[in-house]
Amino acid sequence: MDQLQANLYKLLVELDEICKRNDVTYYLAGGTALGAIRGGGFLPWDDDIDLYITRENWNKLVKVMETQTPENRVFVCVENDDIYCNPVGRYVDKETTVMMKSQLLCGKACGQLIEFFVMDPMPLGEDAKWNHRKLVKVYTELLSPYFVVNRNILHENTEFDFDLYNKYYKKSLIFGKKKVLNELLEKITSTTTENSDCYCMRWGTRTLMYGIDLLGEPRMEKFEDAMFPVPAKQEEVARIAYGDSWMYVPEGSGKVVHNLDKDLMTPFQQYVDLYKPLLNETKLMRNYKKNKRIRAKALYKKNEFKYNFACSRAKIAAKHIVESDYDINVLRELLKNKDFAQLQKHLSYFYSVQFNPDIKVDNILVPVSDEYIYIAVMNHVLQGAYYKVNSIMSARKNINKPLTDELQEADRIMQFCKQLSIAIYDKKDIQLVENILQENTQYSHMIPDYARGELWVMCQKANTNADYEKLLKEAKDRVALFVDDGEIMRYEAYALYMLDKKDESKEKYIDAIQRTRNGFVWKEVNDLFGIDAYDVIDNQEDDDENEDVEDTKNDD
What is the pTM of this model? Predict the structure, then answer.
């Protein structure tokens, strides 16, 4: 932990004590929960703490904090502060400063903080759920005067109904904003747990749904120096929130870091006292609201333009690819030979456009041939990374055109990989994994995921030296088949460790963590040898950069 995280951890410990003392149930959430199950503590880049809490427990906590908030802390939420216009409540450290522009008027919210994401039961039925999510989005949009909340609107089937928002906005001008917000909140919170099968919560610009059983009775997980509650089925929660790659540590741009001004040595009130006298709060709030309406009105036109621009970019990219004189037979041969490095060079332009956020978010496909798409998809699938091309297959399915036999087979393989991933990571069900493997033996020497599944089962069942000797042999065989697969190497390393060949195991683990970003492999090597995978990867990247420099010098 760095100093920032140490301060956050202190907040969590004292908040946990308050909740225990008052029988308030909460759960670690978001990156905090992910850090707990994947590494036993903070994600290295994490700069806040997120918690889930049901509406019932939230209402109880709001009441408790009226009298039990420590002197050096602030508990701020829409229930106790009219200027604070965020559905996410905060437990704030008065002795530090963490500022964002949208909270300048509410000086209470300007310290290091823990955030609460409130979970509300949703009504039964797909239509009712859809309408519920619309109301949640309208509520958060109407609540915030500072910026447009629902700015990432999809071109089609948006849950944010601008006409519905306008209806409630005009209503607020007549009856008052507070009255209309309370009306919306009453509708959002009217469903009881007994009449629901899932919770809904707002996370940034997204509304997420979790089955009630996923939260369930909290289970305890180690987070830094103590045990804290996470959802009963946190792994399934993580898959919903982060997708099929939730067990992998993201590279640079995939890490979520907040754009905040921080000063951990100065109480935020000192800053507030300096800037607040300089503000005309009435005029500033009026300008916020005016700017918000202008931006909200322009939103659909803006997103329509973004969509059309993204479609044009996809078409231009396809034209460029076709005109580049690529030979589909050459690409097929590279795929057959598993020459992934060369394939990546040939396909890099396609990937760069296809994975562009503006193209990806609207499920747009770069219109190349189905043969080309098949090769682009299988390039990642055969490397054990089906999750990287989920969006490509989704975009292709979105087109009103039957899948070719090849693409149908690619889709079946991807579904197999996903089922296997769920069985291993979410369910941890040995029998289920064995059943999935038995039903898909045709992929046994083709897909690294199959080998990972086989070795996982063997590892779970192993309890004697003979078992670990067998695991070692099978792992070596699979490493020879799927060269450079760090997740498979991990089983070879673990077998060596259990056979008391610690030095060999350590070397193999270091090889493994340089070839996979699987967070559980990284955690395992840290637990066994105290090796921080982040340090190994950083050193590796530094070495690579130095090699690049040397190559440049040689070229000169």
Answer: 0.88
